[in-house]
């Protein structure tokens, strides 16, 4: 299979990476979809819907059937204005779900956390990835991540969930500031023992950014390809779509799919979304165009 850089001069070899995620090997020679599984009562889009263990399992099962390569489990809301929860409360929410997903579905599980206790426990329960919106800046998180042996996604943000959307501002073009932050954070993590081949980067759409910031960041997202690391993108149902299109959360799918296709064209390796089936179709269609041909064995099989 050709890599995306063969189809578009804006792409880099980062798209050809394979990540060892515990006992799973994640093939990133084509874009993969990460399904969101929030086990929180207050997430902005689906809070409270999957708190019960059986509900969480069934939803994960549906997302896997629709083509999700990864299930991202979160036990603390990071929506704008969200309040932090204790490490024990987050662990109580996340641990049973991770354990069940690994045991019953053999899923590649990512855990959306900044908490060192959760990082350690998730690794012991069989999770294959850590997804940290605070880029391992919380005390003890980097050491826990190094010890876990798992790949980690480092995300750019400005501020904390409680205040990040109050007055976000940047002194230079946002894509340059985001890239500079990630370069510094990658170096700090490598210096502490986190190997570069275990690092994923996320530009952090919606985390301390205005609509204009988000749109420009996507427009120039190929800037991040210079880092030659896999790129994770999360824009699903976010307010940038609502503000541009005037749509409530439940009517943002079409806008999100448009952003997905543009992100794939700009080199996104992992798309973190709520609506897995529709996103898989958008990813596969965009990829087919970039590859100038049909690739039926991407995120799900076709019977046509």
Can you give me a brief rundown of this structure?
The chain is an alpha/beta fold and 304 residues long. Helices cover 37% and strands 14% of the residues. The chain has helices at residues 53-65, 87-105, 116-124, 141-148, 174-191, 211-219, 239-245, 253-265, 276-291, and strands at residues 18-21, 24-27, 32-38, 70-74, 109-112, 129-132, 152-155, 199-202, 232-233, 270-273.
Structure description:
By secondary structure, the chain is of the alpha/beta class. It has a single domain (30-290), classed as TIM Barrel (Alpha-Beta Barrel). It has helices at residues 53-65, 87-105, 116-124, 141-148, 174-191, 211-219, 239-245, 253-265, 276-291; strands at 18-21, 24-27, 32-38, 70-74, 109-112, 129-132, 152-155, 199-202, 232-233, 270-273. Helix 8 runs parallel beside helix 9 (276-291). The two termini are 20 Å apart. 49% of the residues are buried. Mean pLDDT is 88; it is low at 1-15 and 42-48.
Any descriptors?
globular; 9 helices; two-stranded antiparallel ribbon; alpha/beta; transferase; TIM Barrel; 8-stranded parallel sheet; 304 residues; disordered N terminus
Look at the structure and name the CATH superfamily: Dihydropteroate synthase-like
Termini Cα gap: 20 Å
Mean pLDDT score, rounded? 88
CATH architecture: Alpha-Beta Barrel
Strand content: 5-15%
What multimeric state do the chains show?
Answer: single chain
The helix-and-strand class reads alpha/beta
> Number of DSSP strands?
10
The CATH class is identified as: Alpha Beta
């Amino acid at each position: 299979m050709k890599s995306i850089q063969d189809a578009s001069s804006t792409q880099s070899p980062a798209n050809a990476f394979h990540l060892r995620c515990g006992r799973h090997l994640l093939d990133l020679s084509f874009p993969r979809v990460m399904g969101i599984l929030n086990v929180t009562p207050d997430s902005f889009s689906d809070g409270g819907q999957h708190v019960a263990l059986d509900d969480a399992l069934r939803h994960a099962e549906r997302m896997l059937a629709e083509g999700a390569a990864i299930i991202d489990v979160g036990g603390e809301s990071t929506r704008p204005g969200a309040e932090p929860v204790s490490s024990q409360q987050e662990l109580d929410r996340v641990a049973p779900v991770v354990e069940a997903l690994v045991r019953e579905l053999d899923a590649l599980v990512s855990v959306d956390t900044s908490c060192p206790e959760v990082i350690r426990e998730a690794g012991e329960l069989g999770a294959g990835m850590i997804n940290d919106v605070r880029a391992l800046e919380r005390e003890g998180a980097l050491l826990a991540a190094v010890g876990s042996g798992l790949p980690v996604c480092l995300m750019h943000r400005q501020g904390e969930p409680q205040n990040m959307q109050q007055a976000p501002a940047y002194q230079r073009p946002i894509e340059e500031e985001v890239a500079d932050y990630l370069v510094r954070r990658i170096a700090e993590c490598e210096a502490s023992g986190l190997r570069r081949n275990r690092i994923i980067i996320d530009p952090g759409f919606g985390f301390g950014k205005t609509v204009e910031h988000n749109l420009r960041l996507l427009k120039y997202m190929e800037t991040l390809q210079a880092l030659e690391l896999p790129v994770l993108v999360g824009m699903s149902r976010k307010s940038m779509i609502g503000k541009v299109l005037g749509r409530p959360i439940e009517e943002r799918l079409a806008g999100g799919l448009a952003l997905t296709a543009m992100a794939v064209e700009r080199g996104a390796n992992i798309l973190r979304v709520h609506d897995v089936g529709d996103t898989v179709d958008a990813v596969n269609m965009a990829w087919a165009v970039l590859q100038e041909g049909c690739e039926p064995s991407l995120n799900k099989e076709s019977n046509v």
